[in-house]
Task: structure prediction
Amino acid sequence: MNKNIKKAFGKGKAFIPFITCGNPSLAVTERIVYAMEEAGADLIELGIPFSDPTAEGPVIQAANVRALSGGVTTDKIFDLVRRIRQKTSIPMVFMTYANVVYSYGTERFAKVAAETGMDGLILPDVPFEEHGLDLISLIAPTSHERIAMIAKEAEGFGISEPKQVKKMAAQSDGVIVGSAIVKLCEKYGADCVPHISTFVKEMKDAIQ
Result:
């Protein structure tokens, strides 16, 4: 496991917030990252928007559309990460889709991501067996007999509703919350940062 990711789980239960890059803008995304770290986030998932995010619900799908409509590209997100890494070393992973990586060039994507300071990558539409890299896998109800195999490699647990945080933290190494945070981005737009900061602090406090 990446040392920086391991660090995220080294101080107890990890709280892992997810945001879609460029929703509502890349400038606001950068501010959100700093605010979430200050509020207690242990690891941050940065979503690279894709036109057909099959593993997402309507909230995050809509965020992808808004980000892409705003002109967000993979290269602009890499530039965002470079700026963030000048100010913080908080563990961060990308979540995106195989088509984004393949169209960019798999080797090129992995090389640039590592050079910018990213720590991991989640590709929900790539089967576990095809991961040629040390990637982070998600388990879906349709995984069936493969769940046990994937779970052996698991380090965290993803959920979508904040009310589940405390309960799920008792059964897992970490808790991921995405939709609730993305909803705050949608509701408050460029003014979402303090609202997200308060939410992240409340969620982190709930699992300690």
Remarks:
- The beta strands are 14-20, 44-47, 92-95, 120-122, 157-158, 174-177.
- The CA atoms of residues 126 and 205 lie 34 Å apart.
